[in-house]
């Protein structure tokens, strides 16, 4: 479709293709506390036939939504058209664009080259040490073809899983796209994750191939990676080969026959490969994310619906102009943001992107601004935690650079506090760039709630409204929509194209985690608290479960607790997310040591922090570990994290009446007071 005839900041408000639900339609549909009639009758809706309601033909809103998505899907190349937009008869297992066949890599790469854009830059890549590489769409096509041919030469075939643990180097993108091209679901594991975390992900997915590198640059140092992945693959018989990119030149342990250098295998391959098409529902990737238990969930995404929504949201949320914009998403490919908004969305839209390998303060705190100036970045998408870090470093740093190319700013990962919003707008956006606060999740696959630039008035701290095509609500415990000014749970009341298709190998957990809470209404439970303001705009309030959000990364309390108790000196542990001015939340742990070790706390806590970093990864290292004699528990033995959060945030401890032993909090406070 043609680009909307407006630019952000020109003050005009233009209706987009599908109108966003206005506060008035919301009122008529929802605050009446009864489910909207169009939801009850969506085709194949879980409501159809429920409670004796005869299933009816779809009413306009649902049909319009499907027509909207069909138009968006039409922007992609399909080898075989779909016969049905949505099949929801097996809810909550959705099938979008059933019968349609496409190749995701063709849509991200080949079709742009075929349309004459081979010379357009796909990535301006910059390494942490300062080396650079410019990759055009034609280059990308050759590299992806070579990589695909290499994977074929290893005997991989459609449906086999490939694990990828790589730093932010171009080969990471080549590897993902080669997998997509061949119908091999990839499982990308963040480079900072421990061998144990990698191992459990490889095992769960049964990966046949692992792609990694010799080492990775982190804060100016070359750190080993292959040595870590070797530790993981010692216990994973499913892995037949390890393909190793040479990045740092570090010496690596080597297993003859199993290990292969990328430059030997891939570089020798022909640079042409004819892609075949796959079913719209063919698995594209698995991405593990923390849930409320210790075991991460493998979130499954498929092809047609996912690509449709990531492309659409990337284009609209950032008002992308592929011919002129230079877009930079600062996430790591190990997270969903990297999948959807570094790889699949931008490439499907033929964007020119910046990709940067390293940390933002290597070798100096102006590194990001220097990159923005050098490449003329016009759309910059980052996380509130980094904005707050920039604030801490000081506004004199961005002031040294020419940031006038910036026209849209994005935010993701956690609620952006108004103070950070204003700083971002002033010091990066010259008071005029719209800030697109995007709410979404690994599970949603793509942006769901965001103020579309130019079409929404600025409201610092609010993600505002679902994007066109999406429906979301804030509801109470029973699932009834709350009124303006009220709080509740965020739910998604209509299926969406990029929704997760399940938890890898665990259908029960999928139903249980996301659909059981409001099973009677068929709502997806996001796990976030939210409220409507007086205009009917949505404000996200953080997780309502035991998932912490540290620097925009999801970490479950249970995961850290289980790492802590795996340390011999620890008898019991409880972990809470305490608010932190830079990281949003910080991990604070309370541990009971085994008899005898009670007061040599200093050494134990330092060792424990390292232990958690080894078990999970440095991002899970507790900010603080307090040694306590007891933990506050209810009569049924559940740890009352609320009280521990009070202690961690140095507040007056709240209501203790449901504790099995109400003196426990005094004991904890007294103990901490004399150990301080
Ligand atoms: C939180 C990251 C408020 C939220 C894309 C969600 C946000 C979790 C925002 C998903 C935002 C993400 N405003 N909260 N703009 N973006 N969150 O799976 O709690 O790593 O449930 O996906 O991050 O984290 P995930």
Protein model, in words:
With about 675 residues, this protein is an alpha/beta fold. The chain has an eight-stranded mixed beta sheet, sandwiched between helices. Strand 19 (about 410), helix 15 and strand 20 (about 435-440) form a beta-alpha-beta unit. Helix 4 (about 105-115) packs parallel to helix 11 (about 335-350). The chain is globular and about 75 Å long. It starts with about 20 loop residues before the first helix and ends with a helix. Mean pLDDT is about 90; it is low at about 1-55.
Keywords:
single chain, 676 residues, alpha/beta, 8-stranded mixed beta sheet, 7-stranded mixed beta sheet, 20 helices, 30 strands, globular, disordered N terminus, binds 5'-O-[(S)-ethoxy(hydroxy)phosphoryl]adenosine
Mind sketching the topology for me?
Layout (H helix, E strand, L loop, with lengths): L22 H9 L5 H4 L19 H14 L10 E4 L7 E4 L2 E2 L1 H14 L3 E6 L5 E5 H17 L8 E3 L5 H13 L3 E3 L6 H11 L3 E5 L1 E4 L2 E4 L1 H8 L7 E5 L13 E3 H4 L12 E2 L3 E7 L7 E6 L1 H14 L9 E3 L6 H13 L4 E4 L10 H9 L3 E4 L1 H10 L2 H4 L8 E5 L5 H10 L7 E4 L33 E4 L11 E6 L9 E2 L3 H9 L8 E9 L5 E6 L3 E4 L2 E4 H9 L4 E11 L3 E10 L7 H15 L8 E4 L13 H8 L15 H12 L1
The chain binds 5'-O-[(S)-ethoxy(hydroxy)phosphoryl]adenosine.
The site of 5'-O-[(S)-ethoxy(hydroxy)phosphoryl]adenosine (WTA) has 22 residues, from helix 11, strand 20, strand 24 and strand 25.
